[in-house]
Amino acid sequence: MPETRARPVTKIRTLTTPKFDDQELYNLAEKFGTPYFLIDEEALRKNVSEIEGAYQKFKGPFRVAYSIKANFNPAVIKTFVSEGIMFDLTAANELYFLMKCGGSPENVIYTSITETAAEYEAVIKGGVKKIVVSSYSGLLNLIDAISKVGAQVSVLIRVNPEVHVKAELRFSVRHGKFGVPLDAPNEDSAMFMLKKILDTQSLKFDGFHFHLGSQIEDPSCYSEALEKLESFILGARKAIGDFPINTLDIGGGLPTSYGKTVPAPSDFSATILEQLSSLAESFGSKFTLIVESGRFLSADSTVLVSRIVNVKRFGENKYVYLDAGYSILPDAALLRHEYPVEVIPGGTTTHQKTILVGRLCDSLDVFATSGRSKLGTAEVGKLVVFRGVGAYSIVLSSPFHCQPRPCVLMRDTQNRYSVVRKGQTVEELFEDEGGASSRSAA
Asked: What does the mean pLDDT of the chain come to?
């Protein structure tokens, strides 16, 4: 087993959002109104290539899996389908989206949170063959679903290695929501569940999965998790006999840059590639390595374009009011992401304290901006571009203050622009909220 000391981060990654011509952004604003989202297809494809390139020296099969929850716009899904990657799904409705976009259930790794028998039955009928279980009762529900459908599936156990993770969101916390401990004195443990899977004829044990966090800042936590997992597997083989490891899914966590530089995918792979190759040798088989990503693959592909509608000077502060609010950029309020922001045309850095605020009647509707933001020359009528908003913002948005959802545009690899989600009108929002329904007894 090689030593797993943390390696220095050598390839710092900064935000690489695509460049759009200022005049083109203005033309789109005039045609579709503001605010609007704009996705760049080429950026999505480049992000896939960056992860694949980082792990190209792994001595075994390697797959990237896109976590659809980050952005399930059909145009985004279709782009990733054409790249031939896998998809990490956590809901039957996500499988519906994938299939409608031409995806195959053969390329799905399914990790339910609720793990109900009805959910498992639905996705198995949909053709999913690779399922991750995260609890003993969930495993029993899966067995029940399989008996009704009459199919065989490959099963992974989601473990919680309970290692320290330096990240914006940590999922490997002790006694956490996700996964089971490697060993515990009850049935919700990797050892107990492993025995049950190996003893169940309708199940095929496939491997292990863990997810340590989101926006991970130090890749060394993967080394510690892999070391603990290897120790568990070797101990389990001694206790219950040999079993194969066909798949090892090390989850997501690859960070994207908002207000600061972050490690690149190559920093993560450099930290653990040698260790992963050693694991393949000790396991006696070349397992398929899966690296999941939602945020990294989608975030920096997209910009949000909003218009300045008012400016107010209050003491030494300059307040710049936009026609967008955190209702369509929820991470601004939930996680205080410091998005790189630029005024166009002619945005410059400024020493004056410029506070960027939204149009909502809520004190939380203030946008944190990064040190790379260019808010100089902010005046009424100009546009403000938020970069790196492609993950979670579009799918978590809400109609707070009766705000219709904005349109989503995409620029394809031929530099052609198209509407991939039309903007909602206030009349349509009213209808969606039941405005046209007559009141009747339930």
From this structure: 90
The rounded radius of gyration (Å) of the Cα atoms in the chain is 24
pLDDT of residue 245: 94
Which stretches within 284-344 are classed as H helix?
295-298, 331-334
Nearest by Cα to 180 from 197, 168, 204, 201: 197
End-to-end Cα spacing for the chain: 64
Give all domains of the chain, ordered by start, each with its CATH number.
41-297 (3.20.20.10), 300-431 (2.40.37.10)
Instruction: Measure the CA dihedral 351/352/358/362, to 10°.
Output: 120
Tens-place pLDDT, residues 29-53: 999 999 999 999 999 999 999 999 9
Using an 8 Å Cβ cutoff, are 207 and 156 in contact?
A: yes
DSSP element (H, E) containing 73? none
439 vs 148, higher pLDDT: 148
Write down the pTM of the prediction: 0.92
Model pLDDT, residue 171: 63
Helix (H, G, I), strand (E, B) or coil at 298: helix
**Ranges assigned E (strand) in 315-416:** 317-322, 341-344, 353-357, 366-367, 383-387, 408-411
The candidate with the shortest Cα–Cα distance to 249, out of 57, 61, 423, is 61
